[in-house]
Each structure stands twice: as C-alpha cells, then as structure tokens.
Amino acid sequence: MERNTVVPRMRTAANIVAEIKALDPATDVTEYWVRGLIKDKAVPVVHAGCKCLVNLNDVLAILRFGTAQNHSESDAAGGIRRVEV
C-alpha cells in the first residue's frame, strides 16, 4: 500500500457547510445549496448507507471556479407557453 496516498475529505452536506463556515464565518453557502449540487449531479457522490458523502475539495473548487449553467431558450423566454396535449 502506498504511503503517499491522499485521503479525500469526504463530508455530508451539513459538515461541508460547517467546514466552509469555519474558514469564512460570514459565508452565504447553505446546506440547501450543497444538496442542490448533489441533486444536480454537479459533484460526485459516494453513498455510505443512507448518507451521501461529497469531497469537500470538489465543492471548494466549484466555489472558486463556478459552474457552467446551460439555459435553454424556452426556459429563458418565461411567460405563458402552449402545452401540447
């Protein structure tokens, strides 16, 4: 087994927010936002029983570099749209 193996910092959504708040007490990052990243599959998830574990470094990278958001023209148009039956 290699001794230079880096162990990923896997955390639950609540613990990710706690770590970020420890680094920046005035942060606006919420558990709701982190859970949205998990739901949108913006970050890889490891399921451990009923817990979803996310690498803290992946979330910090998203905060640092942002995400690419693709909005289709129909979503951007807004207003009333015809629904085909």
Topology as H/E string? EHHEEHH
- Report Rg: 17 Å
**Spatial order of strands in the largest sheet:** 1-3-2
Number of E strands? 3
Whole-number average pLDDT?
A: 88
Separation of the first and last Cα atoms:
60 Å
* Strand content bin: 5-15%
Query: Helix content range of the residues, please?
Result: 40-55%
Shape: extended
Number of helices: 4
What structural class do you assign from the helix and strand content?
alpha+beta
Give unreliable regions as ranges: none
What does the largest sheet look like? 3 strands, antiparallel
Task: Write a structural description.
The chain has 85 residues and is an alpha+beta fold. 41% of the residues lie in helices and 13% in strands. It has a three-stranded antiparallel beta sheet with strand order 1-3-2. The longest helix is centred in the first third of the chain and has 11 residues, at 13-23. It starts with 9 loop residues before the first strand and ends in an 8-residue tail after the last helix. The mean pLDDT is 88.
Describe the structure concisely for a colleague.
The protein contains four helices and three strands.
What is the secondary structure topology, with strand pairs?
Elements: E1 10-11, H1 13-23, H2 31-39, E2 45-48, E3 51-55, H3 56-65, H4 73-77
Antiparallel strand pairs: 1-3, 2-3
Helix pairs in contact: 1-2
